[in-house]
Every structure is written in structure tokens, then in C-alpha cells.
Amino acid sequence: MNKFLSVFAVVLTPAIPAEADELSGTFRTEFDKSGGVLHVVFDQCSNDPGKTCGVIKAAYDMGDSPRQDYQHLNRQIVWNMEHDGRGKYTGGQLWSHEADKVFQSELLHRGDVLKVSGCVGPICRSEVWVRLD
């Protein structure tokens, strides 16, 4: 009987709807070298609603004070990400505000956590961003 239940549970697992891990809402980045963080809002790309993009909507300094003068507010930081239906997003790009470089990027979304990784040539980097709303 236990073997039957185990097999039954494994067979049902793929039936979880893909919408359960749809990436939208506001995520907080990791702290940068200066101690600041960004709030990035994810939604459908305006130029391609089938893909996902992220826009910088707020910046905070190390004391958690808003940086109204942050020059990159409303700038796309992630664009053209394609969803595989299982929480993985690929094929897009990520702009690093610290390095001022664009990376080929991959996102892995699980609940309130977003693993963001990107590479320029052999140089790769990853961060974990956390959902705020």
C-alpha cells in the first residue's frame, strides 16, 4: 500500500499548475557594495507580453532610507526572460547596476525566493532576491 501511495504522489506532482510559480510582484535585491538595495517589480514585458521583465522601482541606502535621487529608477534591470512553466526563466538579460554591464541571465523562482544568475563570458555571478509583495 505504501508503494502505491508513493507512486500515486509522484504521478500527481506534475499536475501542479504552472501559474503557481508565475513571476510577478516586487523583489528586494541583495545588498550591494555600498550597503544599498533595490526593489525590482516583475511583470510581463511591455514589448513582448509573453516574456517577463523587471524594472527598478525603488532604491534604499544602508540605513533603509529611500534614495529619491537614484539615477536608475524605472530602468529595466531584467528583460526578455522566457518561462519554462516550472519556475525557470531563461533567454533574457540582466543589467548589473554595480558593474554597469549586461549579463546573459537565468532566474529560478520558488515561492518568495528568486535566484538570479548571469554571465559575461567566463565571469558568472548569482544572488538571491526576496519577494516583498
Provide a descriptive summary of the structure in words.
The chain is mainly β and 133 residues long. It has one domain: Lipocalin (Beta Barrel), CATH 2.40.128. It is built from 1 helix and 8 strands. It has one helix spanning 2-12; strands at residues 25-28, 37-44, 52-60, 76-83, 88-96, 101-110, 113-120, 123-131. An 8-stranded antiparallel beta barrel has the order 1-2-3-4-5-6-7-8. The chain is globular and about 40 Å long. The chain starts with a helix and ends with a strand.
Helix content: under 10%
Shape summary: globular
In order across it, which strands form the biggest sheet?
Answer: 1-2-3-4-5-6-7-8
The tally of strands reads: 8
Mean pLDDT: 86
Quick structural overview:
By secondary structure, the protein is mainly beta. It contains 1 helix and 8 strands.
SSE arrangement:
Layout: H1 2-12, E1 25-28, E2 37-44, E3 52-60, E4 76-83, E5 88-96, E6 101-110, E7 113-120, E8 123-131
Antiparallel strand pairs: 1-2, 1-8, 2-3, 3-4, 4-5, 5-6, 6-7, 7-8
Keywords summarizing the entry:
single chain, 133 residues, mainly beta, Lipocalin, 8-stranded antiparallel β-barrel, 1 helix, disordered N terminus
